[in-house]
UniProtKB/TrEMBL annotation, chains A, B:
Family matches, as Gene3D superfamilies: 3.30.70.360, Zn peptidases
Keyword Protease: yes
Cited SUPFAM superfamilies: Zn-dependent exopeptidases (SSF53187)
Keyword Lyase: no
NCBIfam families: PRK07907.1, PRK08201.1, PRK09104.1
GO biological process terms on file: proteolysis
The name this protein goes by in its record: Dipeptidase
Alphabetically ordered keywords of this record: Hydrolase, Metal-binding, Protease
Domain Peptidase M20 dimerisation: 202-360
Amino acid sequence: MSQTPDSAVHAYIERHRAAFLDDLAAWLRIPSVSAQPEHAPDVRRSADWLAAKLTATGFPVAEVWPTAGAPAVYAEWPSDDPGAPTVLVYGHHDVQPAAREDGWDTDPFEPVVRGNRLHARGAADDKGQVFFHTLGVRAHLAATGRTAPAVHLKLLIEGEEESGSPNFRALVEEHAGRLAADAVIVSDTGMWSEDTPTVCTGMRGLAECEIRLYGPDQDIHSGSFGGAVPNPATAAARLVGALHDEHGRVAVPGFYDGVVELTGQERALFAELPFDEAEWLRTAKSHAAHGEAGYSTLERIWARPTAEVNGIGGGYQGAGSKTIIPSSAVVKLSFRLVAGQDLGAVEKAVQDWAERQAPAGIRLETDFSPGTRPCLTPLDHPALQSVARAMGRAFGKPVRFTREGGSGPAADLQEVLGAPVLFLGISVPSDGWHAPNEKVELDLLFKGVETSAHLWSDLAENWRPAPR
Amino acid sequence: MSQTPDSAVHAYIERHRAAFLDDLAAWLRIPSVSAQPEHAPDVRRSADWLAAKLTATGFPVAEVWPTAGAPAVYAEWPSDDPGAPTVLVYGHHDVQPAAREDGWDTDPFEPVVRGNRLHARGAADDKGQVFFHTLGVRAHLAATGRTAPAVHLKLLIEGEEESGSPNFRALVEEHAGRLAADAVIVSDTGMWSEDTPTVCTGMRGLAECEIRLYGPDQDIHSGSFGGAVPNPATAAARLVGALHDEHGRVAVPGFYDGVVELTGQERALFAELPFDEAEWLRTAKSHAAHGEAGYSTLERIWARPTAEVNGIGGGYQGAGSKTIIPSSAVVKLSFRLVAGQDLGAVEKAVQDWAERQAPAGIRLETDFSPGTRPCLTPLDHPALQSVARAMGRAFGKPVRFTREGGSGPAADLQEVLGAPVLFLGISVPSDGWHAPNEKVELDLLFKGVETSAHLWSDLAENWRPAPR
């Protein structure tokens, strides 16, 4: 009796399970902490290790790409079908700092399996999720009898994600020709829960600015002058107070221009997720839900643009009191953006709005940090449908759809390469990203392998992208 | 030809001018800096010196009163007219810190006369203005042929004013019986300018609070949670933004309850002062006038209650950006109060208002520092009229009226003793209080002596206070 493709994938994975875990453990033992200069040699070692492993996996091209900071790894395995889609997998091989004394039960760089979990720094974020693609592509070949993948497969695994990806955009721009793809698969996210496999369809963008307000040329006495000259701390507060209207909407004119609204289908799919708001508030360590009127909490964090005050300061903040009118105040704002918003237009709208708020006698300066664009792939995009089907086969149940409220370098790939970004991750909220005792669920890790194995066939069968 | 009272006063002062300046210089050489513990013996020496000098001047009672901090000096010289008013003069014998390297042209504790100015720490604030009363009362006796003053004269010269008068209220309460007076004359203020003698008729009071706002139990990620939970920095800003209405009025309900409004006469008198708003803005180091609609700058700083933000802080204030929703924020507010406002009622109104502003999920705590009550003496009060006439005789021109925007311990005297507070000062804005090269104008110093000499006769002639 011949095997079904699914059972062939299963059988291959089962045979290679122990070796796969040994290899992953070897990689996790390399403390590739990009934020700590003393670990720079380890980050380089991690890149070399991965490039060698990808070569051993069968990738005909596997290179370490230097940057102004830590190196990235690039690999390529062309399909024997010239018309197949080209897919670029993104992940990162650097990890967050970790030390036993932070609260780890065991050495963070000595992987250990307890029950059905593999504990180590990087187990979920992101080495485990990069590594499942290596066994995935081998299982894909074994189950299909191919000698090359059904799609043109490329991997870009950066080495500075945990340090804010300072050189990533330049790297992508430099190698845009070789990185060209019809779709980008980001494996650096998670899914809803062990029981609810989900595919993330987009991330919010981010505009950040610091607004400095200047009043008197020095702190002045509030008894002598109070009530008769403008106070920059008051102006700063009124500026922030004017940021939202009474419905929790951002009150900057033009802010919502172009926003891609949620479809009825998306809202219905979000609403089907088993969301427990009380539990979510505990995770948020917050004591109430609050936001834009007319939207649920999930809609607010995934699909609506927002404005937040990340910091405010001015005048005397020490113990007791000091009767001054402060000379200056500062406000740090960040704006999460959703698909359809133009980063530059939002920045200009914020700057114009802020300048209009400054009362006479208050000088205002606004500086924007480099921003991040939002990304979103429509539910009916063929590549997204393939990811959902592949994941559904691996998990044996239909997948649902989420979005990500944060912002990441994926948007640079979308923008520079002009390709839709899809998110394939098997991490769950309890995995403890950036926390002590980070782990990956072994069952889910192998579902990731399985998803990867199914995905390349499904994409090739169901999608013929237009020529780039 | 017999002398007029004025020429007799002049003649007496002229004869004792050199000795008076020598004595004042001796006192100024004592560095009675109350804020610096190493000068505590000097502050005690200053008190002893003054008590001895008052005894030598003729005061039958001159005592050093200990406090929990630096000592005060009390002196008493009863009138031979039992029905005469009792007047308590307030001043202080401690001084601000001063060091040559702060920018002094000469040693701050080695008095020097340059041109018509006496330079030394304390020359104007406040030893010079305390000391003019000693020659004043002698000139009063000499010109009137009396052996005791026309009024029951008391002096209370504290030793901690430059350290915030921490023990003053307790001192006044302890000695309230001996300090009992029909009027308090504060000689620790100034007048409009060399050419425009003025009497100050009141000071603003002060309520101060810190409001702490608590949101999430720790800083949380603004990508994951932004837009869906309340942000305490936003709440702090909105609180401050709600502090004033669009007319620059304080928007705390009940804040203006009981406010004694300016009379038409007071407004007309203020308007007659040679006020140069551009020059005032330079002094305020500010770039626009701004305040309660319908009031002039002088009215705003002297006669209107205000609210100011002295400090605001929350979240990330360092370089660059940090995408957090901060866990907490703090606002420091101060409210200047005018006559008719009740300190306790204002504090309660502010607390209630603040609590009502807190959105769901934000916990708010309000703490008030000890406040200061406002004081104001009506223009038609007989004692105020006497001060104005005495000063007018000394300066040879009618005096005008001002108020003081700041707040001070005078209000404790008003409240504990139940007596109106009048302000008799001859310092001018250029005297450099708390600054290097502090000075007093010698001409004005002797106008102070003259005013003091005339005042006691005028008060006794024109005012028979009701029995206390």
